[in-house]
Write a structure and sequence with these properties.
The complex is a heterodimer. Chain A is mostly beta strands. Chain A has strands at 4-13, 21-27, 30-36, 42-46, 60-62, 65-67, 74-76, 92-93, 95-98, 101-109. In chain B, the strands form eleven sheets. Chain B has a five-stranded parallel β-sheet with strand order 3-2-1-7-19, with no helix packed on it. A five-stranded parallel β-sheet of chain B has the order 9-16-10-11-12. In chain B, strands 21-22-25-24-23 form a five-stranded antiparallel β-sheet. The chains are: A mainly beta, B alpha/beta.
């Protein structure tokens, strides 16, 4: 049985990401997009649009959402859910700021 | 059949204009109407001169009755005819040009004239007043110098003039006699906030200052104050007050005090002569805002057609300042007195000040600064003299706080009683608007304006009227003909472009703040558009906001369905060489690029490159002399060519050379949508120039310039712009055309759509027939190219935006213990 526990990892500083921008963290096979909003909140989503796997990290960040670069779905940064009429959800991960350090919460098999 | 009566009107301002509307509505055939107007034009919305001065509107936007209206109603309008004599015996009037008209009924509506302080120098050229379109035109002319202006008078007109001149780039100082601005409408605290706000916009304000003389030999050079201060200026605007224009009536022997004395049925001392507007005096009062004048208009119209019931009743009118971004509202009496109380709310950080003056639990006066949404509600309580003791504690917070939970603006409007006044200028209440919407099936703002007049004058209640429309119509309401840019704003692209220029907005946050964006940081539709408009309008000052660009323009490559990228280097005019081809081959091998393809644009595409590899790919391509082909840009893409005179037996000119020249001159420029060009060496047209955004067909006698073709989602052959003789002329015309499109196009609007909107003739006229215009466009393009022609690939190879291309971290997580 694979129970999941949370592990917190420091991945860099908030200044590594431009405001209203994103950068990726590679975790094994998975790309995780770390977003920074205009008001310096950070969010983490799997870098994969629920529509056709578009790299969300390459989209335009506005308010609490990102618009996918491939076909313009709008994805909530907080929940990973597609907004409006579109349906689908991307995996989201907990992140927090400790001072200017970004700490990402990952579930790992224990 | 009875003879029509003859009605003569002197003056063609807002008051008689409204009177005639009422007249034609209720008795279209009662009168033959003749109007004499000293101003050489039709009736326009004088109130809106300030937006014309600041550049937010054009004169055409503020015309109330166009020429067609006079024709439709059989009105004889003498434009530019000042009446100099009324002969009451003969019942005629005479204009200064000698035109004589006889009347059965006469209406005097001569308005008022600006007061000019008789200090030395007041008649020098360069001293203006602020009353009509000629004054605005004179100010605009003076503003071209970008020199210094002094506005004498810190009241409503003076401040609107000052703000407008500032928008037009002048260095403005306001001289005001009293200690605080707009003291007749604002109390000192609000006057102070207003002063600070204006100073924040770079307008200098000197209060408690009195003008001693205006300095200058042959024209204005400055002014001197009583305390000896000298302020240099090339323009002086006097806005110190108005005086009713009553001389004509006085000369005719009518009873005149400050204004032409009329009864409450608008009759002068001669029963056959009426007077309306700012020129009249009723019960000792004269008026300077349109709301009471419109009431006069209605009264006079009904008396003219024999309905004697209507009488003029004095009411208070709210004042608002029409300077975009400044919200102030004042109404009633707010002087302090023993038996009065006040409730004050201040929020210093938000710049909000609200004050209510009460007597016996009833509102007497209201001053709102910074937040004026509750103005209509307070005014309603004031007019009805509602006892407010029940809601005293929360009164100042506004309507939303009455009755528990906070209302959103929509609910607040819904909660207004039917008789709450929405449009102060025209005295239209809520019930009348909603009633008209349902009974007449009105669909939009213009309909409401046409049927009720609400929001048709100063326009500050437009938001309320729109809310009423959507409340009444629900989803059926489709706000106006302009489609907003996106859900973040109600403004269309053209309004946004104009306001960016007019208000000198130079950052995206500034645009969103000043134009009142509804979201905190826009969306994926408006941000790229705003970024383009700012790049285009302020090429030297604006710092490109990469986070507002679509990914392709941010990383200078085209994203593919699997998240990899494609790279297309420029091949100028489609020409290449073995060295270039070898470099491409080497890059393809070195980076294992899975696909190489000839594009439809005469160059080579390498597809399937990983993002991390992009800078290294570019570095290698750069060594061979390649720059980015911008195959991703809303900007110049390709200039396709054919082989031309170099090789082809039919070629008439050097089409390849000209194509290369155009591409080298124009690469790097950003445009509203992509811009593709082609040059063909003869009308056989092997480079497909007749379906491009701009195409050139070489012929024996020179060059035919084509434009506005399409061969993508739509297919459309080009239109001919014109014929020129030399390559240099081709360059100048093509570049000017591109710049005109850059300045006017809406984001994502291809040239053929823009041309359809603007009109082919207009474009031909400006580019082919007006050398000055053409040169202006050309020069602005050249200027902006200084900042645009930087190869984005080499910039990134040398480290710019490094973060874009590397992961932030690579984790190798170990299992937790
Ligand atoms: C590569 C190329 C196809 C090819 O293999 O030949 C191509 C590829 C794409 N075109 Fe194209 N177009 C290419 C020539 C054309 C042409 C032919 C031409 O330029 O002479 C046209 C018709 C002419 C025109 O532009 O009107 C053309 C009309 C379009 C359109 C429709 C534009 C329209 O307004 O009607 C789009 C969609 C859009 O821009 O929104 C488009 C969009 C695209 C995009 C960018 C789709 C996208 O949004 O991802 C494709 C990018 C693929 C990539 O990453 O390279 N492409 N595209 C051609 C690149 C030319 C170049 O060297 O830069
Ligand atoms: C810049 C500006 C901003 C304003 N802002 C507001 C505002 O926000 N809200 C508000 O309520 N009011 C505002 N006003 C005031 C409002 O415009 C006037 O109250 C209104 O226009 C007066 O209308 P009227 O018909 O009496 O006179 P006018 O509109 O002044 O018209 C009089 C006309 O008569 C002509 N005339 C004069 N003498 C003769 C003659 N002998 N023979 C023939 N023609 C003659 C004049 O040329 C003029 O065209 C503003 C005024 C100005 C100038
Ligand atoms: S026509 Fe253009 S947009 Fe369509 S698939 Fe081909 S390259 Fe892509
Ligand atoms: S893959 Fe994201 S919108 Fe299609």
């Amino acid at each position: 049985m694979n129970a999941l526990t949370q592990t917190w990892v420091r991945i860099g500083k908030i200044s590594d990401i431009p405001p209203r921008g994103a950068r990726c963290v590679r975790n094994g096979d998975m790309n995780i997009a770390i977003f920074r909003t205009a008001d310096d909140r950070v969010f983490a989503l799997e870098d994969k649009c629920p529509h056709k796997n578009g790299p969300l990290s390459q989209g335009i960040v506005h308010d609490g959402c990102v618009t996918c670069p491939l076909h313009n779905w709008v994805i909530s940064l907080e929940t990973g859910a597609a907004q409006g009429a579109d349906e689908g959800q991307t995996l989201s991960f907990p992140v927090r700021l400790e001072g200017d350090e970004i700490v990402l919460g990952l579930g790992v098999p224990s | 059949m009875t003879e029509k009566q003859k009605l003569v009107v002197i003056g063609n301002g807002m008051a008689p204009g409204r009177m005639l509307e009422h007249l034609f509505e209720s008795a279209p055939d009662a009168f033959d109407v003749t109007i004499f107007n000293a101003e050489p034009r039709v009736n326009y919305d004088r109130i809106m001169l300030s937006p014309v001065l600041s550049g937010e509107k054009s004169f055409e936007d503020i015309i109330i009755h166009g020429d067609g209206w006079y024709i439709r109603h059989g009105v004889m309008l003498y434009k530019g005819h000042k009446v100099v004599e009324i002969d009451r015996q003969a019942k005629t009037v005479r204009s200064e040009h000698g035109e004589v008209a006889s009347y059965d009924k006469l209406v005097i509506a001569t308005g008022s004239a600006p007061f000019i302080i008789p200090v030395p120098g007041h008649d020098l050229p360069g001293v203006l007043t602020y009353r009509d379109l000629d004054d605005v035109d004179a100010m605009l002319l003076a503003a071209q110098s970008r020199g210094k202006a002094v506005v004498i008078g810190g009241g409503l007109l003076g401040l609107e003039a000052a703000a407008g001149l500032k928008e037009r780039g002048m260095d403005v100082t306001v001289i005001h006699l009293m200690p605080t601005l707009m003291e007749r409408q604002l109390d000192p605290a609000a006057g102070y906030l207003l002063e600070r706000e204006l100073e924040g916009r770079g307008i200098k304000i000197i209060t408690k200052a009195s003008t001693k003389r205006i300095i200058g030999e042959t024209r204005v050079e400055g002014i001197e104050l009583e305390d000896g201060t000298i302020i240099p200026a090339t323009l002086v605007v006097m806005a110190v007050g108005i005086r009713p224009s009553a001389a004509l009536a006085r000369d005719a022997g009518l009873s005149v005090n400050r204004g032409i004395v009329v009864t409450d049925s608008m009759q002068t001392s001669d029963p056959g002569i009426f007077a309306v507007g700012e020129c009249v005096e009723i019960n000792g009062n004269v008026y300077g805002l349109v709301a009471p004048l419109y009431q006069m208009a209605e009264v006079a119209a009904s008396h003219l057609i024999g309905d004697m019931a209507k009488r003029f009743v004095e009411t208070s009118t709210a004042t608002k300042l029409k300077v975009t971004g400044i919200n102030l509202y004042s109404v009633g009496d707010f002087a302090e007195a023993e038996d009065r109380e006040e409730i004050v709310l201040r929020d210093a950080t938000a710049g909000v000040y609200k004050r209510l003056v009460l007597k016996d639990n009833r509102i007497l006066g209201v001053v709102l600064y910074g937040e004026t949404a509750d103005g209509a509600w307070f005014f309603d309580l004031l007019k009805k003299q509602t006892d407010i003791s029940e809601m005293r504690e929360t009164l100042i917070f506004g309507q939303a706080y009455q009755g528990g939970s906070q209302l959103d603006p929509m609910a607040a409007v819904a909660a207004l009683p039917d008789d709450a006044e929405i449009c102060g200028c025209n005295g239209v209440c809520k019930g009348k608007i909603t009633g008209a919407i349902t009974s007449k099936g009105l669909k939009g703002l213009d309909d409401v304006r046409a049927h009720t007049k609400a929001s048709a004058s100063c326009g500050t209640c437009t938001g309320l009227v729109e809310q009423l429309l959507s409340l009444t119509l629900g989803d059926a309401y489709n706000p106006a003909a302009v489609t907003p840019m996106c859900g973040c704003t109600g403004l269309g692209h053209d309004d946004v472009r104009r306001l960016i220029k007019a208000k000198g907005l130079k950052t995206i946050p500034a645009v969103m703040q000043e134009l009142e964006w509804k979201t905190s940081c826009g969306c994926a539709k408006c941000r790229p558009a705003l970024n383009y408009y700012l790049v285009c309008d302020w090429p030297d000052e604006y710092a490109d906001d990469y986070q507002s660009r679509f990914i392709n323009e941010r990383v200078h490559a085209n994203i593919q369905k699997d998240g990899t990228y494609s790279v297309v280097p420029r091949m100028w005019g489609g020409m290449t060489s073995s060295k270039e081809l070898r470099a491409i081959a080497d890059v393809v091998d070195k980076f294992n690029i899975p696909a190489v393809k000839c594009t439809g644009g005469q160059r080579i595409d390498m597809l399937g490159i990983r993002k991390e590899d992009l800078p290294a790919v570019w570095a290698d391509l750069g060594k061979a002399g390649f720059v980015s082909g911008q195959a991703y840009a809303k900007g110049l893409r390709t200039v396709k060519t054919c082989v031309g005179t170099d090789w082809c037996r039919f070629g008439t000119q050097d089409s390849t050379g000209l194509g290369i020249k155009l591409e080298k001159f124009m690469w790097g420029s950003w445009t509203p949508a992509k811009l593709k060009m082609a040059v063909s060496g003869c009308p056989r047209n092997c480079s497909e120039a007749t379906c491009k955004d701009i195409g050139i067909i070489c012929v024996d006698s020179g060059y035919d310039i084509h434009f506005a073709g399409a061969a993508g989602l739509d297919i459309k052959g080009t239109e001919v712009l014109g014929h020129v003789k030399t390559e240099d002329e081709v360059m100048e015309h093509v570049v000017a055309l591109a710049q005109m499109y850059r300045e006017q196009g809406r984001y994502l609007e291809r040239i053929y759509k823009w041309a359809k909107r603007i009109g082919l003739e207009e474009i031909r006229r400006q580019i082919m027939d007006e050398p000055d215009k053409r040169k202006g466009y050309y020069d602005r393009f050249v200027f902006s190219q200084k900042f645009a022609q930087v190869d984005p690939w080499s910039e990134r190879v040398s480290g710019k935006d490094k973060h874009e291309f590397n992961p932030m971290a690579t984790l190798t997580l170990e299992a937790a213990e």
